Amino acid sequence: MKYQEVYPSAPAVDSNELDSERAAELLTLEYFEAEPNRMPTEAFSQHHILLNLNPDPHRVENWRQGVHRDFTFHQGDVVITPAETESGWRWHARSQVIVITLAPEKLQRFAAQELQLVLAPGQLKDVPCQPDPELVACGQQLITAMGQRLGSELMFESLARVFLTQLLDRYGRVLQRGEQRHFSQAQLQRVLNFLQQHYADKITVEQMAQQAAFSTYHFARAFKRVMGLSPYLYLQQLRIEQAKQKLLTQSDSLLVIAQACGFANQAHFSRVFKQLTGESPSRWQQQQRARSDKN
Description:
Elements: H1 3-6, E1 13-14, H2 21-24, E2 28-34, E3 37-42, E4 47-52, E5 58-64, E6 67-73, E7 77-81, E8 87-91, E9 95-102, H3 104-115, E10 117-124, E11 127-131, H4 133-146, H5 152-171, E12 172-177, H6 185-198, H7 205-212, H8 216-227, H9 231-249, H10 254-260, H11 266-277, H12 281-294
Antiparallel strand pairs: 1-2, 2-9, 3-8, 4-7, 4-9, 5-6, 5-8, 7-11, 10-12
Helix pairs in contact: 4-5, 5-6, 6-7, 7-8, 10-11
């Protein structure tokens, strides 16, 4: 049984609608709004992280491993329910909550391969309720990324990696940590913001490293561990996503779009575009416009 199968309303936002296998390998995000109601006590095979967005404090009851808790849920509070933990809910006001679902085997793989962490049994701490506005803000950024017309998959995946890194740093049950340096959530967010703002410029790895206060060597290694891509390849994908948006919304020539997205010339742009999408820019543009006309 899955959490979503017993929640009394359908999600208003659902990351399963993203066409991205890489993002699905990390986490599932759903945003729910529901009138006062309850959920029966169940134990699920996945981890669940609840992020409260409701600006109005409200009464919530939780039955957790046989213990009844009656408390006030504040905006910015998080609840972490590890897999196989019995938990039931009753909320006395309209809910506005993000539910992050994590498969234990996928979290284990991310921790080991990307962060060099060895997780203890249970993987995550049991947190009935705790204020963590930074983690909640990261969840809100994931929703914002999903709302982008184009490029949402890349940005969602990037922010999902930020979210998991922050989650494991604060709430992971870690047996052993690798010796490599890791980004803090704030450091990685500065790098991503810098790339989003300056993708059209000539950017070096050294400039990216400066945003995180890392040496170029350690930055490149840390970035690839967390993001799954080298800094250069991530920047190229970001540029291509921006180019896609311009191809759909602007009538500029390929050369103008190429230069606006940080490519030195049209030939380089076309080559990278085809490498990452399998189509030339002109062909991709024609296909997208044909689909739009049919709709």
